[in-house]
Every structure is written in C-alpha cells, then in structure tokens.
C-alpha cells in the first residue's frame, strides 16, 4: 500500500510541467521592463485616431514644457514609419550608442532625453517596412533596454490610428497614467478621433484628456484669429464622450517654423499666447497622483 502511494507521488511529480525556455525568457523580459519602467513616475501616451492633426508637435511641446518646469522627462517616438521627433528637436544625424547595460537615449537638455527609430536609420529617406512582431519588439526594447534613468515623465508619441504601435504600448505599460488625445476641430478629424477614445476604453487605458489643436489661425501680421478649421469641435466631442478637455492650441505659423527648424516652439516663444495655451494643457499632467514613485535626482 505504502509502495503504491510512493509510486503515485513520484508519478505526479514526474508529470508536473516545468517552465520552458520561452516562458523563462518571457518572464525575464517582463521583469527587466518592470525594473526599467519602475524608475519613471508617470507614463503618458499621446495619440490620435487621425493623421495630420499635429500630434507629434503636441507631444514634443508637452515634453519640452514639462522639462522647462524642472521635471526630468523622456520623449519616446514610436512612430516607426514616420518618425518626426528628431527633426522637431534638431537632433537629425545623431546615432544611438549601446553598451552592455543597454541603449543610451539622446540627450537634448539636462531635463530631456529622447529616443526614436530615426536615430537608427542611415538617412531620412530610409523606409521601415515591418510587420507587427518587429514593431512590438522595437517598442519593448525602447521600454526595456533604453537607460532612461530616473524620470518624472515619459511622454510617448504614438503614430495615428489604433493599430500595432498603440496596442503594443497599452499591453506593455500596464501602469500608464493615461493618454492625451489630439484632434483638430473639424468633423472629418473628430470621426476618427472618437475611435481612439473607444480604443482606450477597450484596452483599459485611462484618458487624461483631449487637446484641440489648430483651433483658430493667428494672423502673423494683425494678430487676429480666423477659424480656418472651425473652433470648439474637440471640446464638444470630449463633452459628448464624457472625457476631460485639456484646452485649445491655435494654428500659428511660428509653430510650423519652429518644427521645421528643429527649435521647439515652447523653448523659444515662452511668453506667447500659444505657449500659455500649452502650459494650460500640461497643468493636469503636473498634478497627476503625486504619491506615485518619485524620481530621484540621480541618473
């Protein structure tokens, strides 16, 4: 009887499934990601369901605005097929440097570090022709292997739409603070931006709020505002879909000039009305759960 019990016990132990190599590697990657992201207090994803709404401009100036407030900020560009951040910050030509400890982000200022696939491409004309698995791996590597150090904010500029890249970020960043959703006021943009809000709800990403970009055109000669793309559509949509509205950013020629010249608008026109509008947009970001893991003053 005793021998029978012993045989049953040995048999059950022998049939227990041990974790395979792939499962162990997956666990290691998850722990490495959690350790790296654990040094960052707040993670904010900037996205839109529509292209051409100025999402990268908003993401860049949010990151710059936070850094000018004394916050330690990382700006991560995951627009794999059309990276704009290197151009907007005048960092074209910079190449990534790696070491045994990981990848070093490009330093823009003491308070702002940047990562983009644009720093990997040989020329601006190179096309990235990748399917979903490669995109997911790159985003995971940016989150896991880039030595961001201790940050107050990581701002992630996502490509338009609700496809592979935003889905990967939503899956990998389980503790993201939420999304800033960018739209322009006209209906043709709002139709697709509503889908981005639905996407966030379906993947359980909190929505910090909506920014209405290109909301009125400021004439560089007389200073008067003309409603080229209408005004108020983003605010009305936010109200209709019951999400916060963060504010309006006017369409101003100097914003375009700043982006093309690699000089972030917020850094060079701090006293303008548009700069004040950007600073109003980041006010809710500065009050996000202050109890979350504060970044130390170290690297």
Brief account:
By secondary structure, the protein is α/β, with parallel strands linked by helices. It has helices at residues 2-15, 21-37, 55-68, 85-88, 132-144, 164-172, 187-202, 233-240, 253-261, 265-268, 273-286; strands at residues 40-47, 73-77, 97-99, 102-104, 106-109, 112-116, 151-157, 178-183, 207-218, 225-226, 245-251. It has one domain (24-285): Rossmann fold (3-Layer(aba) Sandwich), CATH 3.40.50.300.
Query: Uncertain segments of ≥5 residues (pLDDT<50)?
Result: none
Q: Can you tell me the overall shape?
A: globular
Q: Nearest-angstrom radius of gyration? A: 22 Å
Could you report the average pLDDT, rounded to the nearest whole number? 89
Q: Could you state the order of secondary-structure elements as H and E?
A: HHEHEHEEEEHEHEHEEHEHHH
Structural class, judged by helices and strands? alpha/beta
Provide an overview of this structure.
- It is a single chain.
- The protein is of the alpha/beta class.
- The protein has a single domain, classed as P-loop containing nucleotide triphosphate hydrolases (Rossmann fold).
- The chain is 41% helix and 21% strand.
- It has 11 helices and 11 strands.
- The chain has helices at 2-15, 21-37, 55-68, 85-88, 132-144, 164-172, 187-202, 233-240, 253-261, 265-268, 273-286, and strands spanning 40-47, 73-77, 97-99, 102-104, 106-109, 112-116, 151-157, 178-183, 207-218, 225-226, 245-251.
- Strands 1, 2, 5, 6, 7, 8, 9, 10 and 11 form a 9-stranded mixed β-sheet that branches. Strands 3-4 form a two-stranded antiparallel sheet.
- β3 and β4 (102-104) form a beta hairpin.
- α3 crosses α11 (273-286) and α5 (132-144) packs across α6 (164-172).
- The longest helix has 17 residues, at 21-37.
- The chain starts with a helix and ends in a 13-residue tail after the last helix.
- The model has no long low-confidence stretch (mean pLDDT 89).
